[in-house]
Design a protein that fits this description.
The chain is of the alpha+beta class. It folds into two domains: 20-99 and 121-149 and 157-200, 3-Layer(aba) Sandwich (Rossmann fold); 206-283, Beta Barrel (Thrombin, subunit H), CATH 2.40.10. Helices cover 23% and strands 34% of the residues. The protein has helices spanning 38-54, 61-65, 76-85, 161-167, 177-181, 183-200, 206-209, and strands at residues 20-23, 27-28, 57-58, 90-108, 112-129, 137-147, 152-155, 216-220, 223-226, 239-243, 250-261, 264-271, 281-283. Strands 1, 2, 3, 4, 5, 6 and 7 form a seven-stranded mixed beta sheet that branches. A six-stranded antiparallel beta sheet has the order 8-9-12-11-10-13, with no helix packed on it. Helix 1 packs across helix 6.
């Protein structure tokens, strides 16, 4: 009897360019008194950055909210179920830990005084993969603080231009050009950029993974094996297009089920079951 030993894999949520991601409304734990809908506005700002910089496909926010109209907090399994229902590979949830504007004054404002503002945006994001069997939840933090470059001068109790801008923030569209120029806008963008930078470290380097001419080793029905594995940073859920080893035409697509060894993974065919053959080659699923 022959014993076969498979290496175990720690899921680290490598993200593929082209992955479909659902960003759920953020839980707002801040005491910000303004009228902005932060639970929606911040996810939408994050979505725009992910599409532009990481080439991710973001599920429209209205589609997401149609699945999340539930009272009370959701469990991790419920988050994954929502992602699956939306056809997403990844789910991002978030907590708004702090979103604040603080005013500091020195002197008597009715004679001559100075005022300055400090803003703080503190966000925590959780990343979940919807692939069956995926259990790891990974967190990313974005925290940024901004202060006025100079103190706003107040004479006879009349607010300076800087003070007026901050008092009228409710009239500023969230996420727009004017918002971006405010102190809270700058802190927001820096906080979100930290999160995007963190997620960027999880992008799979497909050039490295595919340099060894990965191919279909064997196939029976929709199940088979490929010569990509743990050493190639494969994880359950990763997808690849399949092109014929005869004429290089795209003939289907596969998904990694489980990395089993350094250069071996179990796969399932997601498209082209009748057309994929042994020795067919894999390529990155850009633009899927």
């Amino acid at each position: 009897m022959t014993a076969v030993c498979f290496l175990s894999v720690l899921q680290v949520h490598a993200i593929q360019r082209g992955d479909r991601v659902a960003i759920l409304p953020f839980e707002n734990h801040s005491d910000f008194p303004g009228t902005w809908d932060l639970s929606r506005g911040l996810p939408e700002q994050l979505a725009a950055s992910l599409q532009q910089t990481l080439d991710l496909v973001v599920v429209p926010f209205d589609s997401v909210t149609s699945k999340t109209d539930t009272a009370g907090p959701l469990t991790t399994d419920q988050y994954r179920s929502i992602g699956e229902a939306l056809g997403a590979d990844l789910v991002l949830t978030g907590n708004i830990l702090d979103f604040s504007i603080k005013r500091f004054s020195v002197g008597n404002p009715f004679v001559a005084g100075y005022a300055s503002y400090t803003t703080l945006v503190d966000l925590e994001i959780r990343l979940l993969r919807t692939f069956p069997g995926a259990t790891r939840v990974e967190s990313f933090r974005g925290k940024a603080e901004e202060a006025a470059d100079d103190l706003g001068l107040t004479l006879l109790g009349k607010p300076s231009q800087s003070g007026a801008v901050h008092k009228q923030l409710n009239d500023v569209p969230f996420g727009g050009t004017v918002f971006s120029a405010t102190l809270i806008g700058k802190a927001t963008h820096r906080s979100l950029q930290q999160i995007v930078d963190g997620l960027a470290t999880r992008i799979l380097n497909e050039t490295v993974a595919l340099k060894a001419r990965p191919r279909i080793l064997s196939l029976e029905g929709r199940s088979g094996f490929v010569n990509l594995g743990i050493a190639d940073k494969m994880e359950p859920g990763h997808r690849f297009l399949v092109r014929s080893h005869i004429d290089s035409q795209i003939v289907g697509a596969i998904q990694i089920i489980a990395p089993l060894a350094e250069h071996l993974s179990q796969i399932r065919v997601t498209e082209g079951e009748q057309d994929i053959r042994e020795n067919d080659l894999l390529r990155a699923p850009r633009g899927r």
